[in-house]
Amino acid sequence: MLTSGVFGYLLDYVIWWVLFLSFLVHTWCFFRLFPKRARTTRLFLGNLFIFFCLLGAAGLGGESYLRFVAVGTDSFGMSLPARRWFALYTHLNSLGCRDKEWSQSKPLGVRRVVFLGDSFTYGWGIENPSDRFGDLIQARFDAVQPGTVEVMNVAKPGWGTLDQIQPLMDMVELYRVDEVVLCHVPNDIEKLLQTTDDFNPIRPPTPGSINLESSPLLDYLYRRIYLPRVPTVRGYHDWLADGYADPAIWSQQRQNFQQMIEFCREHGVVIRVALLPFLRTQGSKFDQQQIHQKLRQYFEANQIPIMDLQTALQGIAVDELVVNSVDPHPNERAHHLFANQLWGFWDPGSP
């Protein structure tokens, strides 16, 4: 096979070896055949050949590690290590959610609670699903009310509020859920924001002259060094802030929320809201406190129980809460802290 979904194009890897071996052969030929009397030229060219050999060895080592060994998520989930991570640690049910298979027939005496969200709720970067806040809530229910509550994770990376309306309706109508916890992240508004061919913060730009699919090393360097400096990436959070500040867009978002709220009320379903914070932000306009306050005011005005999970992380360094240096999703520690606070929805006396 010349290609593999988690190892890239193997023919490209062979080319790396060919280039490296070519450096070695040319270096050997140089020292073997180049006249020794031309000392200055020999010294200069010899050092240059050795430099390229060492550079080739380092490049081949990095290429080999990223292509076959490294496993880990990043912000966009497009690199080979990220694709390997998803292949190893994510198992989806028939509805495409990272959870067990659900039965439409609800067991007698069981209350169903849905955690509805995006990549944060999905557990992006969390290897063991039992470390996600939804699963931790399930464990608490099992400890105090065994067999009486079934927690369901209905979340997909990239979902926004607009994407979540129909799944909410389906879960209520088909699976007869009793409670919904809407897990809202500030970027759940992004599907309502305007993009252009030249400015689309949702999709990072790819270089036109280099095929990053051919080299995990080049892809890594591009995403680690160049991409964070691209205006569409640096301006992502300010783009979101502009959306929340736009009366027309905020009106549309309120309508989406209202559709969810009214549907739940019509079907006797309890709906609650958890505000999940970004852990790393940039830009001059994005004010997470202000955005969360805006959301709290809306839901409180509609008498919807709401919990701002920013408070669960106070006093803890961001680096201790994110998955890794290139993935700002919340890690296991953050999910445990979220669960501690979310448990207050069902046990108001808990910390």
Any descriptors?
351 residues, alpha/beta, 5-stranded parallel sheet, 12 helices, 9 strands, elongated
Describe what this molecule looks like in 3D.
With about 350 residues, this protein is α/β, with parallel strands linked by helices. It has helices at about 10-35, 40-70, 80-90, 120, 135-145, 160-175, 215-225, 230-235, 235-245, 245-265, 290-300, 330-340; strands spanning about 5, 10, 110-115, 150-155, 180-185, 270-275, 305-310, 320-325, 325-330. The strands form three sheets. The protein has a five-stranded parallel beta sheet with strand order 4-3-5-6-7, with helices on both faces. The longest helix has about 30 residues, at about 40-70. It is elongated, with a radius of gyration of 25 Å. The termini are far apart. About 30% of the residues are buried.
Give the strand order of the largest sheet, numbering strands 1, 2, ... along the chain.
4-3-5-6-7
Helix content: 40-55%
Category from helices, strands and their pairing = alpha/beta
Described by the principal axes of the CA atoms, the overall outline is elongated
Largest sheet: 5 strands, parallel
| Total strands | 9
Q: Over the alpha carbons, how many angstroms does the gyration radius reach?
A: 25 Å
Strand portion, in percent? 5-15%
Unreliable residue stretches: none
Distance between the termini: 55 Å
Question: How many distinct helices?
Answer: 12
Mean pLDDT across the residues is 92
Order of helices and strands: EEHHHEHHEHEHHHHEHEEEH
